[in-house]
Structure formats: structure tokens, C-alpha cells
Inverse folding.
């Protein structure tokens, strides 16, 4: 890890690194990563997203850059810029596949090698935040990511869960992973928390309610908030639209904006 | 594995689409026939959900002369999961590939399943170590095929297409695709909302394009999650739900597939 001391590392210009984790799949890690990036951009920040979900990369589509390619430069790979101002940049295995439906059928060692390359060889330039979106679990990708990022501080994790007990159970295990690897937990987000019927405004807790908050209390880590199920949010992600910009009146917006604000507050110069 | 008649893998490239929920319901559905012996094997090593869903949280496996004994929900429904080997619900299995592969091998070799009509294997998301290992270890025997679970939106389908390609690559027959979380009917006003909109035609369209069977849709029903959290069989708890009838239809189609397969081989 010390070999970068002499030459400048590609992560030298990154001020904060956020890992988005969950023991459980399909709880909205990529959704939260994408919306946090958009919300932080909205607050004038420069944001990079590193997608280390090698078998199921979702972020390129969520940001509508699935047809883009990465290019090489002197210091490594140039990430894909999502907008003209270059305020959000993204690196994902999705950009390296010949066909979008190609399966990445790799065992651990190959995945680890690519993750190391993603961490050392992407020319991010100056960033306020680097958001690292991870696959579900506590295995190769997670161990490799945390090991390779350890020299770079400050580093923290946001854990995403859905409210039901089956999902909270997996996230408890992820908390243990954070503890064991010495990763600071910034907080827990409860996603898919209730659905307000657009026809009659009745709120149904499709995946139960309150599991994330309870877990945060139980584990003694901050609770960052509940994000409701919101068809406008899912639709925006399907079409790669900027939900934060386009749907400020929707039910998920205040929740996401509030979470982004807490992350900004937590990383402002006086508190860090 | 010699005493196992039918082997079904439940797969999805995407996480959280309902693989374990489906596996649990499939196990209950098949075991509803007392004459059939059903085994449910959970190879999601880092996120085992099956013990909780089957109401077996806190159970431990027992050693017997012929290996590990599965934990039984009913006389004809046995379950095995890494969850039974952990001492606390906070225990994380922080393992790289080789260790996970070792355990999967042990699950197949050292568990005393006995005579089994159906072995259902619930898998973690992705196309990596666990999937390659189960195929490698089961490959020598006959596998009926894979049931693939997805949700309707394109963000999920794009991962599921990869999983179908994986199946083709490793020559695993695809029994069919189930679309889960397909629409939600408000319990108050009975209007339907598409919470996960099928912007590219959903699983049905994908199946047409890829020429694989579409087994059916299961709607979102808050009772499903509740039953899973409480470790109960949704099919017998809420028999009148539209989701129950779709589950039952799909399970029937899987049984038909396995039956047809068997008679063709004879």
C-alpha cells in the first residue's frame, strides 16, 4: 500500500469516500448511490461513483450512460462523465463489456484483481465525494474494496436495508463486517418504507415498517431516514432521469434530500 | 445425491427479487403432498434468509453417523443453511470464494438428505463462486433445471439476462422465469399501481425475446413479507390471496416440467 507514497495516487484528490453497503440484495444500494450523487451534485459538489458490483452493474443505466465507453489516459482509465459540467463521473464494469447481456462469470480472485484496478487506476481528478456502490454480501468484493481503500481517509459506510426482518437480519451481519474491518458506519437508511397509493393516498407498508430504525437503535449507529416506495423514483431510474431535479414534489424527495444534507453536515470541515 | 430424483435451482442475477421467498413457497407447495419428500438447500452463504422464512431461526444442525442431518420443518420437508451453523444472528460470514466453495461441497456431500423427490437449491444473487461451484458439484448428476426470478423493471431484467446467459454457458436448462412484485393492489381502494414498472415489457417480453418459458407473475402482497418474517407458509396462511393462486399455478408448471422430463428420460 505504501508504493503510492512517491507518485501521486489517483485518489489523492478525493476528499471523502462513502461506501454504500447492504448484506441484502435489491434493497436499493444502487438507487441510494445514484440519488445521493445527484443530490450532492445539486449542492454544488463534484461526485464520482465507483460501481464494484461486477456481476450486476446497475448504475450505468440509472444514469443513462449505459452506451458510453471508458478511455485510457496517462494516469489510467478516464471515468465516464454523466453531464457536460463533468460534475458526476462514473466507473463500472458495465463499460467494459462487449455486449450488455454478457455474464461476468468470475470467481473471487478475478473480481478482486479488477476491483484493485478500479481503485488504483481510475483518473478521478478532484472530487468532493467518491461513492462506492457494492454488491450484496460480505465476501470477496467487500473485503477487497475495504482493504484497498483503507489507506485513504476519511472513509465511511452507509448501510441500506428494507424494513422487513428478513432483510434487517442480513444488514445486522453487514454491521458486524464493518466492526470487524474497522469501517466507520455513517448511518442506516430504511428504503422501500411504505407505499402511498396514488389513487386514495392510503399508506401500505408492503415490506413492513421500522426495521431499519430499530436496527440503528439496537446497534447504536445513526439512523439517516426512511425512503418510501415511490413509482416516480423507480421510473426515473429506469429511464436514467435526474429524479432530484425533476420530482421535488414526490414522496421520496424530502427523504433523499434530508439524507444528503446529513452527509454534507457530517463531512463539513468543522465536524471532520 | 444419488437418492435425489429432481433438482431445481432458484436463480436470479439480481438481489432482493424474491429468490428465497419463492424457494420457501415452492418447498411448502411441493411438500403439501405428503407422499413427496422435499429438501431445501440454501447456498446463500453471506445472506442466508431461509432459516427465518421457514421458522427455523436459532436451530442447529445435528451430526449423525451418516453426516449432518437437515433441520426438518415437517416430516417431509428438510432444510439446510449456513444459518444453522452460526451462533448468533449478528455473526457475519466474511469469507472469500474458496471457503464458500468448500462449505457448498460439504452441504452436498456430507448432509444426510435420505431419499428425496425434490431438492430445491436457493442461491445468492450473481454469477460467481457459489453458482459455479453448485454447477460443478451437481454437474455430474442430473439437474432438472433452473427457475429464474425477476422483478418487472429493466434495472432487474438487465441482470437477469446475464443469468440466463450464464445458464446457457454452463448448459443448465431453464425451466422458466417468474416475475415477482408484479403490480400492487391497494387494500383500501383496490386500484392497481405499478411500483416497479415494466418499462421494457417486463419478464414476459424478455422471455419472448430470449425464447425461454414464462412461468407467471406474482403480485406484491404485504402478507407475503409478513409470512416470511414470521416463518410461516404464505400459501396456507393466506389461501385466498391472488398471489397464492399464482404461486400454485407456477408450482404446478414446475412439477409438470419435472414429470415430463422424467418420463422422457425413461
Amino acid at each position: 500500500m505504501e508504493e503510492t507514497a512517491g507518485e501521486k495516487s489517483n485518489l489523492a484528490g478525493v476528499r471523502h469516500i462513502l461506501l454504500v453497503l447492504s448484506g441484502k440484495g435489491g434493497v436499493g444500494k444502487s438507487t441510494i448511490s445514484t440519488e445521493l450523487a445527484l443530490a450532492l451534485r445539486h449542492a454544488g459538489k463534484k461526485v464520482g461513483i465507483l460501481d464494484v458490483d461486477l456481476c450486476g452493474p446497475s448504475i450505468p443505466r440509472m444514469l443513462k450512460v449505459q452506451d458510453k465507453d471508458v478511455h485510457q489516459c496517462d494516469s489510467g482509465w478516464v471515468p465516464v462523465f454523466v453531464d457536460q459540467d463533468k460534475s458526476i463521473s462514473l466507473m463500472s464494469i458495465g463499460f467494459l463489456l462487449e455486449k450488455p447481456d454478457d455474464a461476468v462469470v468470475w470467481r473471487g480472485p478475478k473480481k478482486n484483481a479488477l476491483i484493485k484496478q478500479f481503485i488504483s487506476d481510475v483518473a478521478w481528478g478532484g472530487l468532493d465525494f467518491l461513492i462506492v456502490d457494492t454488491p450484496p454480501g460480505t465476501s470477496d468484493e467487500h473485503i477487497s474494496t475495504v482493504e484497498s481503500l483503507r489507506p485513504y481517509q476519511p472513509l465511511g459506510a452507509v448501510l441500506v436495508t428494507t424494513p422487513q426482518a428478513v432483510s434487517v437480519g442480513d444488514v445486522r451481519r453487514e454491521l458486524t463486517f464493518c466492526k470487524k474491518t474497522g469501517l466507520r458506519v455513517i448511518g442506516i437508511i430504511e428504503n422501500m418504507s411504505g407505499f402511498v397509493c396514488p389513487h386514495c393516498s392510503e399508506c401500505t407498508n408492503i415490506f413492513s415498517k421500522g426495521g431499519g430504525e430499530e436496527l440503528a437503535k439496537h446497534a447504536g449507529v445513526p439512523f439517516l431516514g426512511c425512503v418510501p416506495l415511490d413509482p416516480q423514483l423507480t421510473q426515473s431510474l429506469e429511464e436514467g432521469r435526474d429524479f432530484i431535479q425533476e420530482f421535488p414534489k414526490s414522496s421520496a424527495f424530502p427523504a433523499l434530500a434530508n439524507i444528503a444534507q446529513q452527509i454534507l453536515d457530517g463531512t463539513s470541515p468543522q465536524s471532520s | 445425491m444419488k437418492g435425489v430424483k429432481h433438482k431445481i435451482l432458484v436463480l436470479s442475477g439480481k438481489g432482493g427479487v424474491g429468490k428465497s421467498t419463492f424457494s420457501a413457497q415452492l418447498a411448502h407447495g411441493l411438500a403439501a403432498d405428503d407422499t413427496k419428500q422435499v429438501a431445501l438447500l440454501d447456498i446463500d452463504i453471506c445472506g442466508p434468509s431461509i432459516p427465518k422464512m421457514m421458522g427455523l431461526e436459532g436451530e442447529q444442525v445435528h451430526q449423525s453417523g451418516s453426516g449432518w442431518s437437515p433441520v426438518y420443518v415437517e416430516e417431509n420437508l428438510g432444510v439446510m443453511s449456513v444459518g444453522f451453523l452460526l451462533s448468533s444472528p449478528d455473526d457475519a460470514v466474511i469469507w472469500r470464494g474458496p471457503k464458500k466453495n468448500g462449505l457448498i461441497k460439504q452441504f452436498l456431500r456430507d448432509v444426510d438428505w435420505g431419499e428425496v423427490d425434490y431438492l430445491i437449491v436457493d442461491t445468492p444473487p450473481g454469477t460467481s463462486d457459489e453458482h459455479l461451484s453448485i454447477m460443478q458439484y451437481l454437474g455430474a448428476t442430473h439437474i432438472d433445471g433452473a427457475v429464474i426470478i425477476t422483478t418487472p423493471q429493466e434495472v432487474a431484467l438487465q441482470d437477469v439476462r446475464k443469468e440466463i446467459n450464464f445458464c446457457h454457458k454452463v448448459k443448465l436448462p431453464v425451466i422458466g422465469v417468474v416475475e415477482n412484485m408484479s403490480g400492487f393492489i391497494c387494500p383500501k381502494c383496490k386500484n392497481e399501481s405499478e411500483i416497479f414498472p415494466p418499462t421494457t415489457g417486463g419478464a414476459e417480453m424478455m422471455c419472448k425475446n430470449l425464447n425461454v418459458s414464462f412461468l407467471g407473475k406474482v403480485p406484491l402482497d404485504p402478507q407475503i413479507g409478513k409470512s416470511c418474517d414470521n416463518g410461516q407458509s404464505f400459501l396456507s396462511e393466506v389461501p385466498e390471496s391472488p398471489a397464492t393462486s399464482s404461486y400454485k399455478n407456477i408450482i404446478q408448471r414446475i412439477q409438470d416440467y419435472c414429470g415430463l422430463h422424467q418420463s422422457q428420460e425413461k
